[in-house]
Specification:
By secondary structure, the protein is an alpha/beta fold. It is built from 13 helices and 18 strands. It comes from Populus euphratica (Euphrates poplar).
């Protein structure tokens, strides 16, 4: 059988249209449910539609048919991406149509497993959004729809080859079956049922009270370890006795904003305090296996608020994580990384910069409302223009005297972690 393989992840080969999935061992089947189409549109972040019954995907017209006897025709539409409130982004997401159809559709590729259908458009490609809008909601959805670990097939709309290659290990941990990319297909695909959309509990979070088996963000972190660590011995175990505490300094360069302008001085200060400092400047090409190995073996992580701090998901519970918060980014720092850090059991702290540490002071003046009271300046309007000021125009020059005390406390906790964990 011909296969298309990208970085170890198999993609469905449309030339082999009669491919069948191996029938996996499964628990006794549940009581039969009515064969119908249902859509839950009650949530702010997402819509979720299900087809309970034999489903035919026609990729050419982005339509899924419930191929079962019916007395009336039901038609639903969904854009399967969990940023429902953000209209401009949602307008660019491929829409799928769900139709109940008593006429049997020609089945060209028969699958024995249900499908989960979602989109890799929108903000996909930004590391934060890949997890916030993709992999965390996918984890929530899989464990909500299939709490008994049922096997399934991923159908991912507009998944690019580079994206599948980058996240191959993680995608393969969700499902070992070939990924179906509708835009690459002309053949119809048949499933016993289908779920469209991803369930999101909010920004970078999993609410155990909403999960059938009470999973939390710590379970997602364990899932990442399964994908990227594969049960191997941790690299720090082979280090000489009493190694120095390793601090990952996550950095940004160029014209992207939130650059630490005195990064060398910060690095030297951390080394003077006792850390072994590793400069980590991730790029879209950074292999995640490599990034995971580095961060998973570290004892502390420090960085300015930004998408790169999403790598904090790779830290072991109990490790020190310090977020440097620029002016105007206080709320974003909380919802994007502070909440998730606490939920994962990290030793979380914040270093909120003062006006004299922000490059915005030089441009707008220390008495500007933009500096003195960002919340009032912003109001309810977090527009792209305001976002650009705080996130793209602003760089940081850390006060080394004030920062020293924060690093000393971080070092103390990192050493305590090392002694407790044996490395």
């Amino acid at each position: 059988m011909a296969k298309v393989v990208l970085a170890g992840i198999e993609v469905f080969n449309r030339n082999n249209v009669f491919q069948k999935d191996p029938t996996p061992p499964s628990p006794p089947p549940p009581l039969p449910r009515p064969q119908q189409i249902n859509c839950d549109r009650s949530h702010r972040f997402y819509d979720l539609c299900t087809i309970n019954g034999p489903t035919v995907l026609d990729p050419v017209n982005s339509t899924l048919y419930l191929s079962a006897p019916t007395n009336s025709t039901t038609v639903e539409k969904i854009r399967p991406y969990p940023r429902k409130w953000e209209k401009p982004i949602m307008a660019g997401i491929q829409e799928f149509t769900l139709v109940s159809n008593s006429k049997s559709q020609l089945c060209q590729a028969q699958h024995n497993l249900p499908a989960i259908v979602f989109s890799a458009e929108g903000y996909t490609g930004n590391f934060f959004h890949d997890f916030n809008d993709g992999f965390i909601p996918l984890f929530v959805t899989v464990n909500s729809v299939f709490p008994d670990n049922q096997d399934f097939i991923l159908v991912i709309s507009h998944a690019q080859n580079w994206w599948i290659s980058k996240y191959g290990d993680l995608l393969h941990t969700y499902s070992k079956h070939p990924i179906i990319i509708p835009e690459n297909e002309t053949s119809t695909h048949c499933f016993p049922s289908a779920t469209l959309g991803l369930i999101s509990h909010g920004f970078m979070t999993i609410d155990p009270k909403l999960m059938p088996n009470s999973q939390a963000l710590t379970h997602f972190r364990a899932f990442l370890d399964k994908a990227y660590n594969h049960g191997q011995n941790h690299p720090w175990k082979s280090n000489p006795p009493k190694p120095r505490a390793r601090l990952v300094l996550a950095t940004r360069n160029g014209g992207v904003g939130r650059v630490i302008s005195n990064q060398n001085e910060v690095q030297h200060l951390a080394e003077e305090i006792g850390f072994d400092v590793i400069i980590f400047e991730p790029t879209p090409q950074t292999p995640l296996q490599q990034a995971y190995a580095l961060i998973n073996s570290s004892h502390a992580m420090v960085g300015v608020h930004g998408a790169g701090l999403t790598h904090s998901l790779f830290l072991r519970p109990g490790v020190v994580f310090m977020q440097v918060v620029p002016i105007g980014a206080e709320w974003l720092a909380e919802v994007c990384f502070a909440n998730s850090a606490r939920a994962m059991g990290l030793e979380y702290s914040e270093y909120r910069i003062g006006a004299e540490e922000s490059s915005l002071t030089d441009k707008y003046g220390k008495n500007s409302l933009l500096i003195k009271d960002p919340a009032t300046f912003r109001g309810q309007n977090w527009s792209s223009a305001i976002m650009d000021i705080y996130l793209k125009e602003q760089n940081v020059k850390i006060d080394l005297i004030r920062f020293r005390d924060y690093l000393k406390e971080a070092y103390k906790k990192a050493k305590e972690f090392m002694e407790k964990e044996g490395g």
